[in-house]
Amino acid sequence: MGISPIGWLHTLGSLPAIPLAAYMLLKYGRIAPETKPGRAYFWFMLLGALTVYPIAQQPVSLILATVTLVVLLTGYGLAKWRPAQRPWIYFQTVSLSLSVFLLMVPTVTESLRRLPVGNPLVTDLKDPLLLSVQGLVLLALIVGVPLQMRALYQQRTR
Predict the structure, then answer these.
(1) Phi, psi (rounded to 5 degrees) for 14
(2) Which of 42, 38, 34, 33 is nearest to 68 (CA)?
(3) pLDDT tens for the 158 residues of the chain, in order
(4) Residue pair 38/24 in contact by the 8 Å Cβ criterion
(5) Which of 101, 109, 90, 2 is nearest to 45 (CA)?
(6) In 118-141, which positions are buried (b, 16+ CB within 10 angstroms) versus exposed (e)?
(7) 12 in Cβ contact with 134 (< 8 Å)
(8) Residues 145, 94: contact at Cβ < 8 Å?
(9) How many CB atoms lie under 10 A from the CB of residue 14?
(10) Which of 15, 32, 60, 135 is surrounded by the most beta carbons within 10 Å?
(11) CA–CA distance from 55 to each of 4, 62, 73, 117 (Å)?
(12) pTM higher than 0.90 for the full model?
């Protein structure tokens, strides 16, 4: 597969964030920083984002890592230093949903470009399969965030 030791650290370090995100989205309807899975998600995401810098081979990877760090730290910063007004939870939720999106786009891209070993499903970044899967990830974000906002609003009005 040709993955360096730091590449393995990046891959294996960030993979647990995927089931943690799925679990929280199903259980809480959002990434919940105040929970044990939320705290674990933060550390796995941080490890994954920081280890992009030494292994990135394209500028877009560095941009994605930087944006991921910004939305991750914004979301968790809002959880730690809750502003007095309630809208912080909406910004936190959007921010952390973006972190999941920014985790999934490179994950599906690299998975389809590397697996199965020796005969990957995708060899070109413009492959229709890859673009379709990336589009589904984007669609999940576009549909999911408004649903999260509605759920938060409904919780607030109860």
Answers:
(1) -95, -20
(2) 42
(3) 578 999 999 999 999 999 999 999 999 999 999 999 999 999 999 999 999 999 998 999 999 999 999 999 999 999 888 776 778 999 999 999 999 999 999 999 999 999 999 999 999 999 999 999 999 999 999 999 999 999 999 988 87
(4) yes
(5) 101
(6) eeeebeeeeeeebeebbeebeeeb
(7) no
(8) yes
(9) 22
(10) 32
(11) 8, 9, 21, 20
(12) yes
Amino acid present at 52: V
Structure tokens at 23: 């679990």
Distance (Å, whole) CA 123 – CA 2: 16
CA atoms within 13 A on the CB side of 101: 20
Residue type, 102: L
Closest listed residue to residue 137, CA positions, set 86, 101, 84, 87: 101
CB 70 within 8 A of CB 96: no
